[in-house]
Amino acid sequence: MNLPNKLTVARMVLVFVFAIFAFPLNLFPGAGWIALCIYIIASVTDALDGHLARKNNQVTDFGKFLDPLADKLLVNTALVSLIPFMFANYGELAQIILWATLINLAREFAVSGIRMLAAGNGKVIAAGKMGKLKMVVQTAALVVLLLGRASFGGVFSRVCIIAGLVLLGAATVLAVWSGIEYIAGNKHLLKNMK
C-alpha cells in the first residue's frame, strides 16, 4: 500500500463524505459549498496519485484496478447528486444531466466488463489517453455545475449551469468515443469468451 494507492483509497472515502453533503440539498446552508470543496479535493487526489505513481515508479496492478474504480464512483455520485437539483430548478435542461448519467453508466459498465474479462486472463488494463481526457472534461463540467448549485439564485449560478452542461455534453461525447475505442481495442477478449 504505497502513497499513490493510499490517495486512491482516500478518494473512495471522500466520495461517501461528498455524498453526505451533496444529496440532502437542504442539509444546512453552505452544504453545497462543502460538497464542492470535497469534490475538488477528491479530484486533486486523482491527478496526484497517478503523477506520484509514475514519478516514483510505484505503478501497481492494484492501483491500475482501483484508480479507475474510484474515478467512476466519484463522477457518477456527483452526476446523480445533481439530478434532483436540476429537475427542481431547470426543467427540461435536467434531461441533459439524466442522459449524460445514463450514457456514462452504460459506458462504465461496458468498460468494467472488459476489465473483468482481462483480469480473468491475468491482465490489468490501465485507463487510455482518451479515457483520461474524458475524465478531465467531466471533472471540469462537474466542478462548474456544483459551483452553480452552491451559488444558486443569481446570474452567476445560471452561467455556471449552462457552461457546465456544455462541458458535460463534450464529456459525454468523449465518454462514448473512448468507450468505443476501449471495446474495439480489446475485442479479442470478447472473442475468447466461452
Your description of this structure?
The protein has one domain (3-191): CDP-alcohol phosphotransferase transmembrane (TM) domain (Four Helix Bundle (Hemerythrin (Met), subunit A), Up-down Bundle). 82% of the residues lie in helices and 0% in strands. The protein has seven helices and no strands. It has helices at 3-22, 31-55, 61-90, 94-120, 129-150, 155-185, 187-191. The longest helix has 31 residues, at 155-185. It is globular.
Just give the CATH class: Mainly Alpha
Q: What is the tally of helical segments? A: 7
Q: How would you sum up the global shape? A: globular
Helix content: over 70%
| Share of β-strand residues | under 5%
Number of strands: 0
Mean pLDDT: 86
Any chance you could write out the topology, listing elements then pairs?
Blueprint: H1 3-22, H2 31-55, H3 61-90, H4 94-120, H5 129-150, H6 155-185, H7 187-191
Helix pairs in contact: 1-2, 1-3, 2-3, 2-5, 3-4, 3-5, 4-6, 5-6
Could you write a compact summary of the structure shown?
With 194 residues, the protein is an all-alpha fold. Helices cover 82% and strands 0% of the residues. Helix 1 (3-22) packs parallel to helix 3.
